[in-house]
C-alpha cells in the first residue's frame, strides 16, 4: 500500500467484518514478529500486522523517526478506512502507538503498550552500535534514529500522554527488562484511563516469552466482540 512517500507492507488475518486490531512491531522486527499470538487474536478480530518503514518488505527510504512512523500509521489507517481500531505496539512500536493515540484520538478505540520505549531521556544515554557486517533485516539507519530520539525525545511526547482518551493497557515485563519499570508505572499513572499489568520474569519480549499471559491480559482488556 502506498502511504505518503512510502510503500508499506502488511499482513492480515480474521474475518473482514470483525473489529480491527493493528499490531506495531519493535525496532529491527517486522509483522512476522506477532506470529505466535496472532492466531488467538484473529479468532475474534480482523488483525493487521504492519511492516513499519525501514523494516521487512516496506520501503527503506533512509529517513526515520517516531514522528514519521506515527504519520505512516495514521496514513495506513486512513487508506484502509479503519476507524476506532485497537492499536497494540511493542517497545518502539508502542511509542509510535501512543503518539498516534495522542495525536488522533478519534482513530483509537483501545491502546495496548507492551514494554513501551518511554518518551523520557535515556539514562545513561545510549550509543548506536556499529552496523554488523552482511545484510540486515532492517535499515540500520532506523537504529541510529531511535537511539538519537531515545536520548533526546521531543518533550511534547511525554506532555501529550494526558490527551490519550482510549482505555489503555500498559504491559510490563518486570525487572529483567531493560526498560525502566518505574517509567512504565508512571506512564500508566499519567494516561487518564490506563491500567498496568506486569508479567513477572517475562523481560522485554513479553508476547514472545510469555504468549499465554500476554494474550490473557490483552483479551481480558478488549471488549467482547458483538
Automatic annotation (TrEMBL):
SUPFAM superfamilies: alpha/beta-Hydrolases. Signal peptide: none annotated. InterPro entries: AB_hydrolase_1 (IPR000073), AB_hydrolase_fold (IPR029058), Carboxylesterase_BioH (IPR050228). Residues 19-134 form the AB hydrolase-1 domain. It comes from the Bacteria. Gene3D superfamilies: alpha/beta hydrolase (3.40.50.1820). This is Dihydrolipoamide acetyltransferase. It comes from Streptomyces nigrescens.
